[in-house]
Amino acid sequence: MLRPHELAILKNAGRQTPHGQALRRHWLPVLAASEVAEPDGPPVEVRVLNEALILFRDSSGRLGALDSYCPHEGASLKWGTNAEGGLACFIHGWKFDVEGNRVDSGAVHMRQVRTTSFPATAAGGRVWVYLGNPEVMPPAPR
Q: N or C: which end of the chain has fewer CB within 10 A?
């Protein structure tokens, strides 16, 4: 049986914790691929290892996993519009592609802005994301 302090270590999977760093070295299954099967379909919000993510398929069918909140006003991208190559925030219309690049400024001035994106793939009927260091990313699941 684990002691309370040992259990606390295992339960905390934040980015800076040993347990969180170990888990982020692997591809993690986050939802069924059928939930984000159609291009330009509605975005889906998931929480993985204390990270709020939005998963979606762009117009080309590429799978994207972005930080859940728009870097401009902090609005949740789960209410965004997924169309024409990216996910647009519902407040000012900033649109992000699957790599997190802003591809449309909407109603606000243009400047170089990105949002955090994570590698995502579909395999075995599941969507998998990788939250760790991209330099040591293992091969994606098949």
A: N
Strands (E), the chain: 27-32, 44-48, 51-57, 63-67, 81-83, 86-88, 95-96, 102-104, 117-118, 120-123, 126-130
CB of 81 closer than 8 Å to CB of 41 = no
| pLDDT tens per residue across span 52-95 | 999 999 999 999 999 999 988 889 999 999 999 999 999 888 89
Give the pTM. 0.86
Beta bridge partners of 67: 53
CATH of span 4-134: 2.102.10.10
Taking residue 47's Cβ as centre, other Cβ atoms within 10 Å add up to: 10
Q: Which residue type, as a one-letter code, is found at position 56?
A: F
Residue 54 forms beta bridges with which residues? 45, 66
Q: Which two tokens stand for residue 28?
A: 């993690």
Q: Dig out the tokens for 22 from the structure.
A: 């170990």
